[in-house]
Amino acid sequence: MERKPISPEVRQQLIIAQRNEITEYHIYQRLAKKLKDKHNSQVLNAIAQDELKHYNIWKKYTGREVSPSRWDMFKFYWISRLFGITFGIKLMEKGEESARINYAEIAHEIPEAATISKEENDHEEELINILKEDKLEYIGSIVLGLNDALVEILGTLAGLTFALQNTKLVALAGIIAGIAGALSMSSSEYLSNKSEGNDAGAVKSALFTGLAYIVAVVFLVAPYLLFASPFTALLVAVLDSVFVVFVYSYYISIANDQPFRKRFLEMVVLSTVVGLISFGLGYLVRVAFGIEV
User: Fold this and answer.
1) Membrane-crossing residues (predicted)?
2) Nearest partner of 251 among 96, 148, 122, 146, judged by Cα
């Protein structure tokens, strides 16, 4: 049976869909070839074949080949390599959701479009959820390290800033407190996992916690090594803490499908309140003990 011609508007949307599908096909194929983990490689190859199949279905209606987006191929490939496959894939899928494709409109002229769209989303979500990555398996340890460092070290720096009013001394104290805190958190995380019977993951959990703690400490202490004014350094440290919270809240919201705004605001408010309290305590200590540096 001869197909009924499709409208120019629907055809244009199908071409956009084709470009998305063939672009993602190449991204998944390229990532699959680079992975050492056979399980994850097989999952990505399965998703890639789905993308190619849907590309060919849309091509039957448009009657033309469509080239992939070279920029998207480069961008999402390296995002996936640097920040994890699950994060890269889910970020890419969210971009596809916001593309100018109205499948409900397409379904008026191509009834199978709605079914194809549902099958694609359901199957890809199922496959993405069975990917295995250390970054996601130990996300709790990473969050623990970041949260603890941002609250403890920012509070310490705020208190010492007013008590000492010397950037070098505050930086030194922050570095010492940061290293001690990282070691303490790592050992606590290790013992916690051992007590729960997670012997295999205890070391990795401890490492992820400690490294996350150190990363946060670097961001918070760096301003005290760059600025002469302790109060300018504190302000920049606070802004750094907001930036760190923003980055990892966004990462978690994408990778684990969690609400971004709530987590971000909670952490910013918590860090700010602790910082203000510590700043006030620093002032009281300075006055009470008559500290002059």
Assistant:
1) 138-163, 169-185, 206-227, 233-252, 264-285
2) 146
CA distance 43 to 39: 6
The tokens for 180 are 């001690």
pLDDT digits (tens, 9 = 90+) for 10-44: 888 888 888 988 998 999 999 888 888 787 888 88
At residue 229, the pLDDT reads: 92
Cα gap 163→47, rounded to integer Å = 58
Burial of 205 (0-12, 13-18, 19+ CB in 10 A): buried
**Is the separation of the CB atoms in 131 and 43 below 8 Å?**
yes
Q: Where are the alpha helices (DSSP H) in the chain?
A: 8-34, 38-62, 70-83, 85-97, 103-109, 112-128, 134-137, 139-164, 167-195, 199-226, 230-255, 260-289
Each domain of the chain, given as residue ranges in start order, spans: 8-132, 136-289
In tens, the pLDDT along 117-171 reads 776 666 666 666 666 666 666 777 777 788 778 778 888 888 788 777 889 999 9
78: exposed, middle or buried (Cβ count in 10 Å: 0-12, 13-18, 19+): exposed
Q: Side chain identity at 248, as an amino acid letter?
A: Y
Long-range contacts of 137-140 (CB under 8 A, 24+ apart): 137/201, 138/201, 138/204, 138/205, 138/208, 139/252, 139/255, 139/256
CA 49 – CA 200 distance, rounded (Å): 35
Q: How would residue 222 be classed by pLDDT, with cut points 50, 70 and 90?
A: very high
